[in-house]
Structures are given as C-alpha cells and as structure tokens.
Write a structure and sequence with these properties.
Helix content is 70%, strand content 2%. It has 21 helices and 4 strands.
C-alpha cells in the first residue's frame, strides 16, 4: 500500500482494475504492439548475425583472435552507452520516438558496414548497431507494457522476446544461406535495412504511450489514445488508474531504490539479479559464437557449422512460443524456476561431454598466418609442417597480421578458407592438428544436443521472464507471479 493510501481507496482501485481487466484487447493495440516488437526481430537478427559473419570476415580481413573478439564486443560497448542514456531519452522524448531513433540508427550502422572492408569501419558500424538495439530493447518493452491492457500485458510484452528469437533464427538461416557466397557477410548485414526503415516509418503513424502523455500533462490526448487502443467510448477509469500510479511514483526518489521503503531495495535487487544471470549463464556468448563453437566440436566447414547453429535458432523459437502463450495463465516465476533448473542440468552435461573433446579452442579463431601462403604449390598442398614454417619466418620481421590490398591475386585472396580447410595427406593442418575423425561422432552430437536443451531451457525461463518480472517489480504488481 502506498503511503497515505487508505484501505477504502485501495479496495476501490482493485475494483477498478478488475473492471479494466474485463475489457477486451483492441485490434489496434495488438497491431501497435506487433509493429513495436519488430525491434525485437531486428535485435535478435543482429545478435545472431555475427555468429556466421565472423567466419567470413575473419578470413577476408585477416582478423586475429583479439580483433575478432573486439568486433563482437564492440556491439556491447554501444549497448552499454545506450543503457546509460536510454532511460533519459524515453522519458524526455517518448517511447515511440525512441523506437524511431533506434530503427534509424540501425539502418545507418548497417549502411556504414556495406561499402568498405575495413576493420575500423566495422567497429564503428557495430557500435552504432549496439546503441540501436539497446535503446530499442528499453523503449519497446516499456511502450508495449504501457499500451497493453493489464490482463494481456504478459502476452504482449513476451511478444518482444518471441520476435527476438525469430530474429535469431533468421540470422542463422542467413548465415547458412550466404556461407559460401563471396562477401556474403555484406548481404547478411544489408538484409535488415529495409525492415528497419519500414518500422521507423510505421512507428511514426502509431500513437504515443498514454502513460507518457499523462506524464507530460496531456490528459485529453491520453484519453483519446486509450479509447482508440481499447476500442471503447469511455476510457476515464483507466486514465484515472494511470494518473494514480504516476502520483504514487512521484513519492519516490532515485535513492529510494536502495532503501527498504516499501520493499524497493528488494525489488531492485531481484531485477538486477535477473539481468545478471541472463549474462552470466552464457546465453549471449552462445548467440555470438554459435557457429565458431560448433566448428570447434567437429562441424568442420562454415556451411556445416552454420547449418548446425540454425538448429539453435529453431529450438529457441519453438521453446519461446509456450512461454509467450501461457505466461499469463502459468505465471512467469514458474517458467523461470523450471527453465533455470533444466539449464543447470544441461550445462553440467555439456561440460562433461566437452571435457572429453580434446581441442585447442584458441586455434579456431586463428587468423590467416604467413605460413598458409606456402601450403599451396601449383594448386596442391605441400607437406611443409607448421613447425618448420615457424623456423623460416622466425628471422623475418613480418607483422602479426597481414594487410591485403585490392590488387591481391586470386590464389592469395582464397587463402582465408584454405587456412581452415587445408589438409596434408588427409590430415588437418588447422592449428590443433586434430583430424575430424578424432572427435567421436557420439560426443559431437551429444554436445550439440546438450547445447540445444540449454537454449530451450533459457527460452522458456530467463528469456521471456526477465522483462515481465522486472516490469512487474517496477510497478509493484508482485501478485502477478
């Protein structure tokens, strides 16, 4: 109960909320939520895209392991920056405008990447995309939660998570489709441009959040928006509830989040813990390095690794659907407990299986080295060993990473793939010097199966639950489960 709120007022508010719950979810509300949730599709696509694109870019741009890691993490640097200013932007300019800005920035970041083959430009474009998807993830969930009726809030907010996993699936399909295409990574990045532009245009014609309009003291506009969203002629009761909740929020300051006042500190810790576990359970790393990871456990070619990672995307979509559909009936906390338990079991299984796969994982991301130029002699591979080549180059002041000019010969231009597929007498020469046959087939598929179970468990637990539970805690609706 908020300070100064009587039992009678509280009972009247609950009665009002029950009456609002009986109201239907208008078609326009569902359409607006779906258009806003396209941000989730774009976010998922960008998160999964790098998994397959990295296999091509590392060869074409001759990226070292460290440079590949920076390419992946540059998106997170942009996301970190956006997370610091995102709350201010959506409160200052509105949730709808923030989504439009994020879509436009995604288009701009993707356009930056296409014309050039430069490591620096790649980092710049990825940072812009990181800012975009972080801002959109904040604004989209808040926008959908504020336009949705209470009894459909769980379903519509979870729609954003469903769109994220569909975007991840599309990214993995794109990785496989362009795995053998020359400069296919450019097509991968370019596919989001039309959809991002269309979302920005469509969002311009959608109404602002009613709650945001009330925050800006525009009650009449908020009432009209509510009537349109609910397909009713009188939205006075819901407008009263919004104004009442905003009045209660003004009684708190930022420092109250860290105090025991009305259990705010506990709510804050629960929300932060959820987000912390989303990151520490390793799910983002799986998305970023799915193809690389699968390549390290026996899926040798880019095509095979990309195809196997597509299975990860399919499992995420299939697992997210029941969590989205039944979240309002079963409760997000129940899904969270079930998913976390299965995740723990699958991670233990995956660790035990991969412990018996003896691979040097550092060599999976190894950049093209000077030795590889001597592996091709008149179109055939020579038997020069890695060790002898190191002796040859030990006296030469060659840089660690080679710069390829646009006038490079066709033989040299194709060496990136030879770095991964070259073999001598049927044996692999890629870093670890482990034949594909040395990895038991049973362990390879068991590793993939445990990975898929882990992904499925995340998709029914931490995946859709983190947004809903955090929004529930922020609104003090702990009774929603």
């Amino acid at each position: 109960m908020a300070p100064g709120q009587s039992a009678e007022d509280l009972g009247q508010q609950k009665q009002t909320m029950r009456a609002l719950a009986a109201a239907g979810c208008g078609t326009f509300t569902c359409l607006s939520s779906a258009i806003a949730a396209i941000s989730g599709l774009l976010m998922g696509y960008e998160l999964g895209l790098i998994s397959g694109a990295l296999l091509q870019m590392s060869s074409i741009l001759a990226l070292s392991c460290k440079e590949q890691e920076i390419v992946v993490s540059s998106l997170l640097f942009g996301a970190l920056f956006a997370s610091l200013i995102g709350g201010f932007l959506i409160d200052r300019f509105g949730r709808r405008i923030a989504i439009i800005i994020s879509s436009s920035l995604l288009v701009l970041g993707s356009l930056i990447l296409l014309p050039y083959e430069s490591y620096g430009i790649l980092i710049l474009g990825r940072i812009a995309i990181g800012i975009s998807i972080s801002l959109s993830s904040i604004a989209t969930c808040v926008y959908i939660a504020e336009i949705a009726p209470q009894h459909r809030r769980g379903l519509l907010v979870s729609l954003n998570e469903l769109m994220i996993v569909i975007g991840i699936l599309f990214a993995y399909i794109s990785n496989y489709a362009f795995a053998s295409v020359s400069h296919g990574w450019k097509y991968m990045f370019g596919l989001v441009i039309p959809l991002g532009a269309l979302q920005a245009i469509a969002m311009y014609f959608l109404p602002p959040s009613p709650r945001f309009l009330v925050m800006k003291n525009n009650d009449e506009a908020a009432r009209k928006v509510l009537e349109r969203l609910r397909e009713t002629s009188d939205a006075t009761e819901e407008l009263t509830v919004i104004k009442s909740s905003l009045k209660d929020e003004h009684q708190y300051s930022f420092l109250d989040l860290f105090r025991s006042k009305n259990n705010m500190r506990a709510r804050m810790l629960v929300g932060l813990t959820l987000v912390f576990f989303v990151q520490t359970t390793g799910q983002p790393n799986i998305l970023f390095y799915a193809s690389t990871l699968l390549k390290s456990v026996g899926f040798q070619s880019n095509e095979a690794a990309s195809l196997a990672s597509t299975g990860v995307g399919v499992v995420k979509v299939v697992s997210t659907v029941p969590a989205t559909v039944f979240v309002d009936q079963v409760g997000s906390k129940t899904f969270l407990c079930i998913g976390s338990s299965v995740m723990a079991v699958s991670l233990v299984t995956m660790g035990l299986v991969n412990r018996n796969i003896h691979m040097n994982f550092t060599t999976v991301c190894r950049s093209q080295s000077p030795e590889d130029f001597f592996l091709l002699r008149q179109g055939n591979l020579t038997g020069v060993t890695n060790g002898s080549l190191k002796d040859i180059f030990s006296s030469m002041a060659l840089p660690e990473r080679l710069s390829f000019s646009t006038q490079r010969s066709p033989d040299i231009a194709g060496m990136g793939e030879l770095n991964r597929t070259a073999s001598v007498g049927g044996k692999s020469t890629t870093g670890s010097h482990v034949e594909s046959g040395e990895i038991p087939v049973v362990l390879k598929w068991l590793s993939l199966a445990s990975l898929l179970v882990y992904v499925a468990a995340f998709s029914i637990g931490l995946g859709p639950s983190k947004y809903l539970i955090f929004l529930t805690l922020c609104n003090g609706l702990l009774s929603r489960g």
